[in-house]
Amino acid sequence: MSLFDVGDIVGALHEARAEWRDSQKRSRDPGGREFPSREALAGIVESLKGALFPMRLGPPDLRHESEDFYVGYTLESALQALLTQIKLELGYMSRHQPRAPEDIDVQATAAARAFAADLPAIRRLLDGDVLAAFQGDPAARSVDEVLLCYPGILAMIYHRLAHRLYRLELPLLARIVAELAHGQTGIDIHPGAQIDAGFFIDHGTGVVIGETAVIGKRVRIYQAVTLGAKRFPIDAEGQLQKGLPRHPVVEDDVVIYAGATILGRVTLGKGATIGGNVWITDDVPAGANVSQASLQNAPQRRAA
Amino acid sequence: MSLFDVGDIVGALHEARAEWRDSQKRSRDPGGREFPSREALAGIVESLKGALFPMRLGPPDLRHESEDFYVGYTLESALQALLTQIKLELGYMSRHQPRAPEDIDVQATAAARAFAADLPAIRRLLDGDVLAAFQGDPAARSVDEVLLCYPGILAMIYHRLAHRLYRLELPLLARIVAELAHGQTGIDIHPGAQIDAGFFIDHGTGVVIGETAVIGKRVRIYQAVTLGAKRFPIDAEGQLQKGLPRHPVVEDDVVIYAGATILGRVTLGKGATIGGNVWITDDVPAGANVSQASLQNAPQRRAA
Amino acid sequence: MSLFDVGDIVGALHEARAEWRDSQKRSRDPGGREFPSREALAGIVESLKGALFPMRLGPPDLRHESEDFYVGYTLESALQALLTQIKLELGYMSRHQPRAPEDIDVQATAAARAFAADLPAIRRLLDGDVLAAFQGDPAARSVDEVLLCYPGILAMIYHRLAHRLYRLELPLLARIVAELAHGQTGIDIHPGAQIDAGFFIDHGTGVVIGETAVIGKRVRIYQAVTLGAKRFPIDAEGQLQKGLPRHPVVEDDVVIYAGATILGRVTLGKGATIGGNVWITDDVPAGANVSQASLQNAPQRRAA
Amino acid sequence: MSLFDVGDIVGALHEARAEWRDSQKRSRDPGGREFPSREALAGIVESLKGALFPMRLGPPDLRHESEDFYVGYTLESALQALLTQIKLELGYMSRHQPRAPEDIDVQATAAARAFAADLPAIRRLLDGDVLAAFQGDPAARSVDEVLLCYPGILAMIYHRLAHRLYRLELPLLARIVAELAHGQTGIDIHPGAQIDAGFFIDHGTGVVIGETAVIGKRVRIYQAVTLGAKRFPIDAEGQLQKGLPRHPVVEDDVVIYAGATILGRVTLGKGATIGGNVWITDDVPAGANVSQASLQNAPQRRAA
Amino acid sequence: MSLFDVGDIVGALHEARAEWRDSQKRSRDPGGREFPSREALAGIVESLKGALFPMRLGPPDLRHESEDFYVGYTLESALQALLTQIKLELGYMSRHQPRAPEDIDVQATAAARAFAADLPAIRRLLDGDVLAAFQGDPAARSVDEVLLCYPGILAMIYHRLAHRLYRLELPLLARIVAELAHGQTGIDIHPGAQIDAGFFIDHGTGVVIGETAVIGKRVRIYQAVTLGAKRFPIDAEGQLQKGLPRHPVVEDDVVIYAGATILGRVTLGKGATIGGNVWITDDVPAGANVSQASLQNAPQRRAA
Amino acid sequence: MSLFDVGDIVGALHEARAEWRDSQKRSRDPGGREFPSREALAGIVESLKGALFPMRLGPPDLRHESEDFYVGYTLESALQALLTQIKLELGYMSRHQPRAPEDIDVQATAAARAFAADLPAIRRLLDGDVLAAFQGDPAARSVDEVLLCYPGILAMIYHRLAHRLYRLELPLLARIVAELAHGQTGIDIHPGAQIDAGFFIDHGTGVVIGETAVIGKRVRIYQAVTLGAKRFPIDAEGQLQKGLPRHPVVEDDVVIYAGATILGRVTLGKGATIGGNVWITDDVPAGANVSQASLQNAPQRRAA
Fold first, then answer.
1. Helix axes C67-93, C101-117, angle to 10 degrees
2. Do F69 and A68 touch (CB under 8 A)?
3. How much is the pLDDT for B304?
4. Chains adjacent to E (≥3 CB pairs closer than 8 angstroms)
5. Which residues in chain A are contacts of C232 at CB distance < 8 A?
6. Interface of chain B against chain E, CB under 8 Å?
7. If you compute the radius of gyration of chain C from its CA atoms, what whole number of angstroms results?
8. What averages of pLDDT result for each successive group of 10 residues across chain A (304 residues)?
């Protein structure tokens, strides 16, 4: 006698899966899973972190004299693993637009090579982010503390890698990498967001930055800031239009305090300061200082 | 000579524990721990995720032809482990209301069986949640991406399992499962919340949904939305009254944008749209569109 | 033929590291890494949790009769590991203020001993936090549930340990411990914050408490509350002044509801109640009840 | 300054590898390793053990009602992994006899299918081996004890699997599996050896059974018995001839006591008993009883 | 289409298991596995090794000041786990002689307590074995080296624990522990063998010591020595008689060199020396020196 | 009430340890363990195997283009770990001959450097051993099979490393490494044995080679061969004399078949062949062919 009637439940779950496949017009594909793996990408990014910052995020027993050996071996291994994941994404995509396996291999290899070649530039960008955090936070004691402790830096390491994948037309890999950071930090940056040098997010929990946001140099933001879309653009037939710019443009040297919400394709001009909790859906001129108080006197742009 | 005087500290901690037990009027129970285990439940839910979505959340080497084998074995194993945890909760509860071990076994087995029998229905509900997310987010590229990447879906997998446990009068297990999701996603849904089909949470960090909230079909909410209690109902003797409905009712097709706070047993009518950051403590009629702007003109329902 | 030109990338990364070291005026130090390890501290705190609450957070097979054995062995092992981390922090610090290794050893041992001796007091404080949570949340069913499930309690276990390290002038270790909690709970408490007995954070995601905040007895706060700095004090030469009190003082028995923002060195008087989402930059008298509604009628203290 | 001159040693090892490749007339093949993996095979055999004896060698929490689920999932997974290893061996072999990748795939799949189809017969053979051990050892208390404890049975599980691989012309996989058993038990059975039903090895350490040995039904041998080759057959040109029968034939119901050495293509007739430590290089008639004592009186067949 | 026809093979294996159960007259027992676990016992013995020799076989970071804490916690945990395994063996045994579960619990607890109480005496015996090895091997440099490196000592740690289990009428547990040592060292000591103080096995591979062997004080043996049974005693009805003394008695101070074979219930008298490779089936008087050479001149006791 | 009286047993074990320390005239040293670690050495040798044979014993995903990176990083890491173990051995030794910590550091570093510098030569020796095995075994199909499967090769990798440690006066490390191989292969080679190029051990279980054995080029031996000491040399005062040559000298091109025992400082002349199971305690001339048969006719050198 069975304790749980597992056989029956297996049958019912089998049926539920069949319904789902039918509703999605999917054939029961004969082979195995062909979707990139979250676990694999987590391991790859972990290795890349070590290869980018070997003495601080690499293995604790590493010494300067074998830094390059470590970097070389770790990179090779991580890039091989990434190449596998790239092929999985391209293969998955080709269900809709069938392509020859050879083409997928060629494109995957080209993407992996381009990604690899960009790593030194990414390291330099991240060095700038670390410096920005160190200079922007009175509590920071050293650049090393910033690199090891700050969730905002962790989020940027993931984002700068994810954004590169996004630009290489690997949106699934990019998204998975972004969500790995989101889960660890509470900072949700869409991999499509373009973020220039010297970006610093303090505290960070609850930050949301949308896909078409454009952020200039030396920008600083605090926890719970949203750079979101006001509404989704809809085309003549009422369909959601994808890819249109719908998130804010934040120019150089802007500071946005905690809880502020900036919605739509508005521009925050160079050097503007946005106070905590303000709600903005229009352009802000360069150098402006928008706060709760200032908004009291400008009811037409009144926020909460 | 001792480096840390560990013996002394052990003694002092021993005394602190004794004080605590005295203050809580607990005897020093002779046996071992009899509390459900967070680690065990994390493993159980991980297995159930695989059994519910074998080809996408199960092991990477799984193939269609052995899907049912995998589901059957994983279910059996997860349900056995769950049964153990159920007995621990019931045993823990029976400290206050002593019961015969046989009764606990009977009730535990019945609960585990009922939970198991409900899994196919839970899978169908989750399929609906995935579809809702896919249709509600212009950035989503496929239902598979949604299932693998979206924290809102992860939270709902945990919630739908936790809610089933809650309804089986296993509030501790339910709560632990809910907190496992909270820790990973920043989405805090009380396992008591009743959520109908097609629910979608975008971004999600900071969402809080209370114990007696009731949510209809096809509802969509964004990050930092609170469905909370306005105040705690107190009975004639000044005691907190438990179990009374104190959180919002959200009817079908409602959309609530980021940062909105809805407090108390209010009803958001069918199809209403609640704008970002608004603060609501009264009913909203069906189809209404409440935004910061609209509230400026309606001071009696004025929010922040 | 190379697939990824790893050799070239290794060279370019080598150069990027050299540039960074030059920009930071660092010599290429001959030895290995000398920075405390996040992973090591995670393990140490995990052990201390078990030593503080052996029957509930220790190993599942523990029995009362060997509680002290477990506590003693775990403590010894955790304190040894902590001593190693303390030496790493002091050694790292001494790059700027060179000191004899013997001095570092003496100071490290003294710090570890002081930390160890304080553990029983920390356990008593945490017992009070657990009771406060149990009494403050109508949904809580038992003190055990609170200890095992509530992220606010998890955050306080980490904070009370981190704060002790901070006061022992080990700010890096303290910060790492604080970020471990932040990553798991979304609650960001600076280890410098002084928090008295019976503190309860409900839900918690998005809470930020700054370095010089002072919190009294029996205070209760909800998710997304910020106790922040209004602006950074700048000295006569325009330099950021560190260490000055710049965060709120919260007196005994204050309650602060979700989303409220309190900025600057203001005082919330004994027993005050701060409503959800309010924005406060001035003192609040004892017993006051500040809400969105009350602020409407007091424009000079008007918040969002 | 370098502590170990690792760079120099890396260079010298690089040179040593180049010399080896030159001496072996190997090109530096561009890709990665293409040799079966000992670790992978260890995992595969571990899974197959569970699939063959689910309730005794499978997972401890397995219950009868989900036995088939477990067997099905484990088999599928192990066979997939085996297929990968088979392709590696065939690919490795094709270095010498180049073949089209498609041919390798077809042959590999056929081999894996044939191996899989034979598993039920292998289980029946092993059941017979267990019974033989139980009946042959006065110390054995149950068939379950035999299956779980006896190294002779462990060796036979590995051998019967390895022999099947050997017959499928996968000698490398077969050899690796055999050495896995040798390492654990000290029993060294070449995978080519043909062993009929009901075979029992007691104690086992030091047993060696050669490639072309043929063993009948119900044979029993003890530790340190060698069934070896007397000399290697050499052809007209002085080359070692491979594949010729050069090890003993042991007919049904033979018993060979500890330390006996039987060399060359001799036949031990049905029911013969070979005493401990005797040295045999000639045929033994059916039913004979050869011991140290008997050999004293038969100098022409004198042994040690 | 299925790659491996796993469904068919699962069916065929199901049938093979059914045949086996029928042949063994076993019902398909409803529950799960009820046999002691080799993995569990390996872990228990590993813990006991640490508890017996904390500073040398315990965790590397252990310090003298917390030795007792470690020993206490490790013991408690190992004994609990052992109690579980004892119940499994007694439960398994009770299939043949049905007993009340309460009786099993009482007997299991008594056995575990008796085992625990004997550990200090076992430690003292093992100290004597270590000293014997140190004094008997000219290559040994320290007692610590002996404890950490010598397979003969490893085998004796396992044997002295296994023998205690054997005497507590737990033959399955005893056998599993013995085979754990056999697999690691190639030394096969039946747990029933009685071995007095100061026993030393050098090199050890291939040693076999039978169930009823009795070994005195300060005995030393070398690799490949067998203390075996000459033949199995058979009763009047031709059944194997179990439990009769059938292995050698080795008196105090005997030395047996490599490869010697001693068979049957013979006695090697006090202080006798047995040369390498000799074959003995008769008593040897005290103080005798039996070697290959001596046997040449004594044809009636001639060996190989 | 306690189940096991753990406290009492802890006390009794404490007393047993105290007795042991007293008997060994050891003070209770204040610190922690200072003995090399078997686990650490197992990891070091595993890494060295990979560094010596990267494409075959290194990680499966390694590619030729990053071979040197892998070798460099792995070496650096393994040598650092080895340096730690060397210091532990020297520190342990200095209990008897107290030395300054600085001297230990200098000597340890010199030893580690010398060991490292010898690795390329060790690789070349091992290449020769692999070739010898391939040429000497008719069943070997490729040099790669030999390297991956043959226990005799595994034993030689460990021996050649252990012997280097032995010559650097690190006998404990050397012994531990030797026992790691003994445990895996049943081949027991004392690290002091001098073995020249092209050595091949077939099957291997039960082989014992003593500390002062000297083995020439191209020697081949089979399972259960002993190269042992006849008796221990004793000095005028009856003390065992250590370090005197007491094991055989085996000249170039000798073959020794299975089970042969060669005892004492005898010489097996160049090209001699020793048959299976023979017992030799005298010199054998070059080119001689000693077998059981030949010994029959030479009673004065008669063996078993």
1. 140
2. yes
3. 28
4. B, C, D, F
5. 138
6. 2-4, 6, 10, 63, 65-66, 69
7. 23
8. 82 92 76 82 97 92 88 94 95 84 92 96 97 88 91 98 97 96 97 97 96 97 94 67 87 96 96 93 96 57 30
User: For the residues of A139-163, what is the DSSP string, one character each?
Assistant: T---HHHHHHH-HHHHHHHHHHHHH
Q: Is the pLDDT of residue E128 over 80?
A: yes
Nearest to D60 among E16, E28, E37 (CB): E37
Please state, in angstroms and rounded to a whole number, the distance separating the CA atoms of residues E90 and D215. 38
User: Cβ contact (<8 Å) for D79 and E4?
Assistant: yes
Angle (nearest 5°) at CA C14 between C13 and C20: 90
For the cut 50, the answer to whether the pLDDT of residue D286 exceeds it is yes
Chain D residues inside the 8 Å CB shell of A32: 80
**pTM assigned to the model:** 0.92
Residue in chain D lying closest to E35 (CA): D56
**Which token pair is F11?**
């006390």
Phi, psi of A215 (to 5 degrees): -120, 130
Residue range D193-239, pLDDT digits in tens: 999 999 999 999 999 999 999 999 999 999 999 999 987 666 677 66
Among candidates B23, B30, B188 on the partner chain, residue whose Cβ is nearest the Cβ of C203: B188
What is the spatial order of strands in the sheet that B200-201 belongs to?
B200-201, B220-221, B255-256, B273-274, B289-290
Cβ of A63 within 8 Å of Cβ of D3? The answer is yes
- Single out the residue of E247, E240, E243 nearest to residue E261, CA to CA: E247
- Residue D176 to residues B51, D50, F146: CA-CA distances in angstroms? 35, 19, 10
The answer, yes or no, to whether residue C296 has pLDDT greater than 70, is no
- Hey, of F47, F61, F65, F66, which one would you mutate to test binding to chain A, going by the most A CBs within 10 A of its CB? F66
Element housing C177 (H / E): helix C171-185
Angle at E142 between CA E141 and CA E143, to 5 degrees: 140
Interface test with F, best of D2, D4, D27, D34 (most F CBs within 10 A): D4
- Which domains does chain D possess? 32-187 (1.10.3130.10), 193-304 (2.160.10.10)
Judge whether B77 and B47 are in contact, CB under 8 Å: yes
Paired sense of beta strands D273-274 and D255-256, if any: parallel
Which of E61, E63, E66 to probe by mutation at the C interface, max C CB count within 10 Å?
E66
**Residues E292, E297, E298: CA angle, nearest 5 degrees:** 90
Q: What is the pLDDT of residues E166-217, one digit of tens each?
A: 999 999 999 999 999 999 999 999 999 999 999 999 999 999 999 999 999 9
Average pLDDT, chain C: 90
Of F67, F141, F149, the CB nearest to D179: F149
Q: Which residue of C has its CA nearest to F31?
A: C80
Using an 8 Å CB-CB cutoff, list chain C residues near A68.
10, 14
